[in-house]
Amino acid sequence: MNFDPRFSGRKFTSVGTRPIRPDGVDKVTGRARYGADFNMAGQLVGRVLRSPHAHAKIRKIDTSKAEKLPGVKAVITAADLPDLTDGDAAMYDILDNCMARTKALYDGHAVAAVAAVDARTARQALKLIVVDYEVLPHVTDVDEAMNHHAPLINDAIFTEGLEEKPVKPSNVTKRSQFGHGDVHQGFGHADFIVERSFKTEQTHQGYIEPHACVASVSSDGTADLWVCTQGHFVYRQHCAQLLGMEASKLRVTSSEIGGGFGGKTHVWAEPVALALSRKAGRPVKLVMTRDEVFRASGPTSATSIDIKIGARKDGTITAAEATLRYSCGPYAGSWAEIGAMTAFACYKLDNVKTVGYEVLVNRPKTAAYRAPSAPMAAFAVESAVDELAKEIGMDPVEFRIRNAAQEGTRSSYGPVYGPIGIGPTLEAAKSHPHMKAPLGPNQGRGMACGFWFNFGGQTCTDLNIGMDGSVSLAVGTVDVGGSRASLSLVAAEELGIAYEHVKAIVADTSSLGYNDMTDGSRGTFSSSMATISAARNAIKILRERAAQMWDIAVDDVVWEKGHAVAKGEKHGNLGKLSLKEIAAASGKTGGPIAGHSELVADGAGVSFATHICDIEVDPETGSTRVIRYTVVQDAGKAVHPTYVEGQYQGGAAQGIGWALNEEYIYGKDGRLQNPGFLDYRIPVCSDLPMIDTQILEIPNPNHPYGVRGVGETSIVPPLAAIANAVSNAAGVRMTHIPMSPPRILAAIEAERGG
Amino acid sequence: MAGVAVSTTINGDSVEYLCQPDETLLDVLRDRLGLTGAKEGCGTGDCGACSIILDDRLVCSCLVLGAEAEGRRVETIEGMAHGDKLHPLQQKFLEHAALQCGICTPGFLIAAKDLLAKNPDPTEEEIRFGLAGNLCRCTGYDKIVRAVQDAATVMKGA
């Protein structure tokens, strides 16, 4: 059916209100079921044996003793997950990451797994597995890995994206480049040039719920998988392909998800659990420990970035250039490419060039983390932008406003922008009371901008109208932060009924068509589009049924505020038929009433934010305190404003942790030294102030309600905003994230000439 | 290994179970008694997702052995509401949207209940330090603090 996704500028009744979420009571009473809260009869406990080496050849694995231990029902190695990827390199990498085939590529890489009657037996069994390793030299630092003398992680990798195919393999899998104009010429016109190098350390999404699943493979080849995931349809596809199953034979149910932030977009344990269940002939529950989550799920990239920006005395940027190196773990990725695309996306530039290098290191395979790759690029760019404003003698907000991208600007990564929010967020920040709040001694204020593309993608929604007129909405995008509430609001809005009469659920993979995962801030954007489309399809049927009940032409029936209304004088005495009345009669007018929608949600509007923060630095210890924090971001249209605020606050808090504290620390032996929440310290309640938010609504022209994604942009500016604040407070430019007390103290002492 | 027989009180009910000597109270609650409201986020007492109240004391149940519950009183999230009437903290968490994914929520509610029992009129700072043993990765804590402040006001008036 034809669906017109264009923004219509309608007045809203439900959208924009703040009702309580449909899954709320279960979550405050402990009833909600997350990954590890599900059990099956006869279920076994799965455990994974992991490499203690950063890089090692696996000569032999002897599982015979483990197999003989009473209570052990299955032991598997890579041999039990044969390569069925048929030349698909990306799938092969996923397979190899799930279970090392010939080499362990990082500390924590899975090498074998067991299923046993209880956890203690499973742990004992792991100790009985003998792995004969040949330890190889390793490299964990992104810059060292690019060095010609660095240990090679995969000798079949030859850098892609170079003009000539290199003759030697390297740890750089790909070079990518974006931009336009002539930066050399642009720098020639600059009165001031800032050139700096920056580093950021690897961080983890830090979701509180470890990965967990229950897999049950039957002897007839069908299987069920219960799992915490951001994308159960994608998990189904990947698991089915790796295990040689038809996708339709594997039903995947997404549990409530205890945080993902990009980290639950990849399979790790699930194919292993399925393989164990297949071998044991019983259901297997596999739950990662926190140590395993840190060592063996997917953190973000560590980076090394060089920036050069030039501007005229009047504050116009004449050229901007960035070289970005992003670690990918031991498998190819496109993380630097995304960083190179986002780096200068906030600005209107005649001459811009960004080059990204994807770098292999002996660390876990990089996964998405909320606006993946953008925060590090923004940290480097926005730090240099601040420094340049200072050199010119301009206010940093004014300098950014002068150079901000606008509607019609050709972005640094190619496309021409439609209506966008960078200018308005900057203007809002400029006039925000935060900017006038007094600063005390050793306190500094910083601000920065951020950009994220936002995704759309394949989406499918079913909207079923019950005989009593209540509505069941089945969506395929996992609810990571309240989207069932937002989507219920959208269905209520479109149908013209009360929010309370809509109940949204996340359907399993056998009950709904394929959906891309909840990533790229696409959940509410794309599923609301599909919900609107499904509701409009249902309304068409409701009108037909009303026409039938009245025995008039369907073209004479319109849908208004939850009712069918016969239009025209000739129908003046017909009154109205409510959705409830039409539904009650449906058994006699043609059966159940439903609306379905299958679409590719195109036109996700890009998103911009500006953050302001005040930081106090103790010059004696280098410790920091966040005094004030303000987020200004464009939401397009805030469907449920409280949850939009929550996304802004949550992203800011994660950015604060990244900026000030969090990092993966590897020892010389290539092993992770802080795989726990004690030593990998995420912000706690007493570390943070209230986080003020301001929602701007610049409608996305490609969505009926103007919605843009809101989930990710909020993590893009904090690294830079905090670095600018710390630099202003400490009087020295900070170039290495996280700005932990020792790094700040060292910078202060170096500045003092100490 | 021989099991240990334990008699205890959970959410006001007498409960008896057998557990292994090395089994945590969290594992007993979740795996033996089906009380999965307490979550394991770390297993090392760092995240607070498994918070329970043991004889009026807030503890991480991952750091308590199942055998240690003998003769004591255990309060979990499952006992917080009275029938179908939510505790004011539960109600305020909903109203303020103090949860996104909700995995940390049972632990926060238990910790906040313990905090308000000991300090019915906490300042913002006292709330922040009182809840510093519980990790939330979604909310930035802003709405959690506001929900606790609001619940404290309601409970004082009750």
| Beta-strand segment tally of chain B | 5
Percent range of helical residues of chain A: 25-40%
CATH superfamily name of the largest domain in chain A?
Aldehyde oxidase/xanthine dehydrogenase, molybdopterin binding domain
**What structural class results from the helix and strand content of chain A?**
alpha+beta
Element-by-element helix/strand order of chain B: EEHEEEHHHH
Instruction: Name the CATH class of the largest domain in chain B.
Output: Alpha Beta
From the 3D coordinates, which CATH architecture of the largest domain in chain A would you assign? 2-Layer Sandwich
Shape, principal axes of CA atoms of chain B: globular
N-to-C terminal Cα separation of chain B, in Å? 50 Å
- Report low-confidence residues of chain A grouped into runs of 5 or more: none
Structural class of chain B: alpha+beta
Overall residue-averaged pLDDT value of chain B: 97
Strand line-up of the largest beta sheet of chain B: 2-1-5-3-4
